[in-house]
Design goal:
By secondary structure, the chain is α/β, with parallel strands linked by helices. It is about 30% helix and about 20% strand. Bound molecules: flavin-adenine dinucleotide (FAD).
Length: about 700
């Protein structure tokens, strides 16, 4: 049974949230010793708890009503309230998730009121509760319905919106008498009787299961960076998520190599998109800190280009101002270095001066990073100044590793890899998904199928305009093994033979090259738009073969050689580099009508269907925010920016998992590591150097 419409959750305390029996038993035995009576073991006393202090003392005295005994007990218990009392497993994180989801939480217990707050404070759960009712707060206590009705009325909720959760018959009887639904927990006290005897509406044996009962069922199709990140976001909130991915592993789509912390690689996009990418990139760094390669990017304008390097200055200043604002709003946003160092210009004289310096093993200042560029770039063919900016690398293998380790840590999130959704039916308030000869209903559906999103749209007869673009970057190895490079961009007009060249460093002399010409990264007919008849743009067979089977190796070699020549126009020594076997490639969607769009998030059909439409990985958190808000999954607005699952991650685990993934996907293991030794990277922090 699901309870999707509840807003107010009433919790019993002892036996439901906390195991207080050890402290209660100590105080009962203290009282018995004071009265020269025999003491009892903890388990015997456990069966007496649940009807308040007076009844507990009576039970210990074999039915005798003794005010003096009660006083001794209460005095002792008051002084030893939380000595050995503990929260039941998973209570804290579940309360935290319910609180984040915006439920209103209250406690109704038969414990004397004065004891409650000190216990909640000692166990650090006091902040979650809007109201606390003890045995002596009202004229009646459970199993009377009064406390439940009083709380729901006082907090402004109907009986239908209210749910009682408890371990004993008093909780269930009170709920039934009040006309409120109830969930029984089977691990509590309840006088040695199973809670099922009293027929609560549902029973749980683990407190975490509450989250599944209260949450609607949400399906995500596609375990790329979009679908996996939404799954993490929803799982952190304790929502009931199933992620379907047809491939064997997550985040195995087109490449993701740059963080775009300002979008400076794209001169053609608007300032507004650049500012959005800056903000979103900083947010992404909070979610995937182990995947960020903190090395700057050098922007160089060739003489053949019609623009001047300084044309970028107004935009860079705007980005710097916006970065300053973001850091002011929250100092934790200072992830791109000092605000004043967001970018720096290098004149020809400064570059010539750097040529005589020794290339540092471990660059840290902008000057140190620039030395290798000053030495290796052919200065006759380029304009000045050079611009160095805090645009970083984003490593897809480390992203894939982070995502899968984080998702493994959520107990009630279902990850179905090797599972393709083949058919979907839309019902009045749900969707029926077909996969592996199975059908399953979900309340909400999130289409995160990347370039195949249109296929899912078509299954549901939703129309949407989009482009698909097939692109590739090439992996090479050079003899620069012992040198740490920044990223270097040589601008040029997209789609022409002078198209931009991107030189992206990885450890051990590996480089990834983009060349924005039709012979290298872009392809003739590689960018296509959908027709009015379908939401899915149809790529030519040659691209689909590359995506679903593999590339011909002679074609890979030819294109990689062209990429090497394209870069070595400006870095002559790079000519000697070697091509490796497999490019990083794939098709991505660009929603709408503007093929240059780079900052995009999500669109909706009604209130239960979302379509993830990120063009850059950095947009995933803004996308998740919108989904949660539009689906009204939370009872109050909340933007999640701190992730519990991150606490279990260690760079060493990411290294291991990422390198396993790189090898499994036929790429050199070195691509799984970060280029810069100061980044999170156990290989270097453990002392090994390049
Ligand atoms: C050459 C190139 C370089 C790029 N560089 C960058 C970069 O530097 N930085 C950046 O941010 N972005 C970059 N991008 C863009 C980036 O790769 C994409 O925006 C991003 O991967 C999109 O992620 P996604 O999760 O939306 O889609 P995908 O990664 O494509 O994930 C969609 C998933 O859905 C699954 N799926 C589809 N249909 C079904 C189904 N019916 N059932 C189950 N599963 C299904 C697929 O198997 C796939 O795994 C680059 C793209 C290319 C092509």
């Amino acid at each position: 049974m699901q309870f999707p419409n509840k807003k107010l959750l009433l919790f019993d305390l002892d036996g439901t949230l906390i195991d207080s029996v050890p402290d209660l038993a100590n105080s009962i035995n203290f009282m018995l010793q004071q009265l020269n009576k025999n003491t009892f073991d903890e388990n015997t006393i456990r069966a007496w708890v649940g009807n308040g202090a007076k009844t507990l003392v009576q039970r210990a005295l074999n039915g005798e009503n003794n005010d003096h005994a009660l006083e001794i007990f209460l005095q002792h218990y008051k002084n030893h309230l939380c000595k050995t009392t503990t929260l039941y497993p998973h209570v804290k994180e579940t309360l935290e998730a319910l609180y984040k989801q915006g439920f209103t939480l209250a406690i109704i217990t038969n414990k004397p009121y004065a004891f409650i707050s000190p216990i909640l404070e000692a166990l650090k759960i006091d902040k979650y509760f809007s109201l606390v009712i003890g045995a002596d707060s009202l004229t009646e206590k459970k199993p009377h319905p009064l406390p439940l009705l009083h709380v729901s009325e006082k907090l402004g909720f109907s009986k239908e919106e209210t749910l009682m959760i408890g371990d004993s018959k008093n909780d269930i009887l009170a709920a039934k008498a009040a006309g409120i639904e109830s969930i029984g927990v089977s691990y509590g006290y309840n006088y040695d009787e199973h809670i099922s005897v009293f027929e609560p509406d549902a029973i749980i044996d683990d407190f975490r299961k509450l989250l599944n009962l209260l949450s609607p069922k949400i399906a995500i199709i596609g375990g790329g960076i979009a679908g996996s990140s939404v799954a993490i976001y929803l799982a952190e909130l304790g929502l009931h998520v199933t992620l379907f991915e047809k491939k064997e592993t997550l985040v195995d789509g087109p490449p993701i190599c740059h963080l775009h912390a300002g979008g400076n690689l794209y001169r053609e996009i608007s300032d507004t998109q650049c500012l959005t990418l800056l903000k979103e990139s900083i947010e992404l760094m909070h979610l995937y800190p182990f995947s960020i390669d903190k090395r700057p990017t050098v922007l160089i304008t060739p003489k053949s280009d019609s623009h001047e390097p300084t044309d970028l200055l107004p935009r860079l200043k705007k980005l710097q101002e916006y970065y300053a604002q973001l850091v002011k709003e929250d100092p934790k946003n200072k992830l791109l270095g000092e605000v004043n160092d967001y970018f720096q210009l290098f004149s020809k004289e400064e570059i010539l001066n750097l040529q005589s310096k020794t290339t540092p093993h471990n660059p840290s200042t902008f000057e140190e990073w620039m030395i290798i560029v000053a030495k290796e770039v052919s200065l006759e063919d380029v304009k000045f100044p050079f611009i160095m900016v805090q645009e970083y690398g984003l490593n897809i293998f480390r992203l894939a590793a982070s995502v899968s380790l984080m998702l493994d840590s959520y107990p009630y999130t279902t990850i179905q890899t090797n599972t393709e959704i083949t058919h979907i039916t839309q019902n009045a308030d749900s969707f029926t998904l077909s996969y592996n000869n199975t059908q399953e209903d979900f309340d909400y559906l999130i289409n995160a199928a990347g370039f195949e999103s249109g296929i899912i749209d078509d299954m549901l007869h939703f129309h949407r305009e989009r482009f698909i673009e097939f692109k590739a970057a090439y992996v090479t190895q050079s003899n620069y093994n012992s040198k740490i490079w920044p990223e270097v961009i040589f601008f040029g007009q997209r789609g022409t033979p002078q198209g931009m060249a991107q030189f992206t460093p990885y450890p051990d002399g590996y480089f990834q090259l983009h060349g924005m010409t039709k012979e290298i990264t872009l392809f003739e007919k590689g960018l296509i738009k959908n027709s009015p008849l379908s939401a899915h743009p149809k790529l030519d067979k040659e691209f689909l073969e590359k995506i679903y089977t593999q590339w011909r190796s002679d074609e890979v070699q030819q294109r990689t050689q062209k990429a090497i020549l394209h870069v070595s126009r400006f870095i002559p020594s790079f000519k000697k580099s070697l091509a490796t076997q497999k490019p990083l490639y794939g098709a991505q969607q660009i929603p709408g009508n503007d093929a240059d769009l780079r900052a995009a998030e999500v669109s909706f059909e009604g209130e239960r269907y979302a379509r993830c439409e990120i063009v850059k990985a950095s947009s995933v958190l803004a996308m998740a925010d919108s989904i949660v808000q539009t689906f009204l999954l939370l009872k109050k607005p909340y933007r999640l920016r701190s992730f519990q699952a991150l606490k279990i991650l260690q760079s060493q685990h990411i290294d291991e998992k990422a390198s396993t993934l790189a090898i499994k996907r036929d790429y050199p293991k070195s691509l799984a590591y970060l280029n810069h030794p100061l980044c999170y990277n156990s290989r270097y922090t453990s002392g090994e150097t390049l």
